[in-house]
Amino acid sequence: MTMVCPRLQAAPTFPLDSLTIPERKCLILIYKGYSNENISAMLNISLRTFYRRRSKILEKAECENVRELWAKYHDILRSDFFKASSERILNDRETAIIEMILAGLSYELIGDKLCIEVVTVKYHISKIYQKLSIKNKTDLFIVMNSMAKTS
Fold first, then answer.
1. What is the pTM of this model?
2. What's 120's domain CATH number?
3. Is residue 2 in some structural domain?
4. Distance CA 66, CA 79 (A)
5. Where in this chain does the record put each HTH luxR-type domain (predicted)?
6. Residue 54: which residues within 8 A CB-CB, separation 6 or more?
7. For residue 82, what pLDDT is reported?
8. What does the pLDDT read at residue 4?
């Protein structure tokens, strides 16, 4: 019988490839510490759908709960690769554009303030909508309002 030193055993590999894109988005937001309500608002999904996705993540990771997930995959979830993925949710430029939209600025004024063309503002807005899984400014206001209420 061959014994393997615990330090030489391979660390568990997180099944990132087995996660769907919606599950990855949920995992990233869970990792960043957002509340269940904020995550469902940010992804424009019901809490029930969020809980279903979280259950799938835990099932694929072979964990009972989020605490076990963090304990089991701590090193992977803190890795530079995963941090880079989690930071893709909204970058500083996108956050600034959201703040200006919420303040009522036109695309032209946003472009002037950021020294970028209107077409670039529209590009950033399309990326924001895509990342937050929303379709228009009304959805953006709803998501931001619900996040403000639960923060």
1. 0.49
2. 1.10.10.10
3. no
4. 18
5. 12-77, 83-148
6. 26, 30, 66
7. 54
8. 41
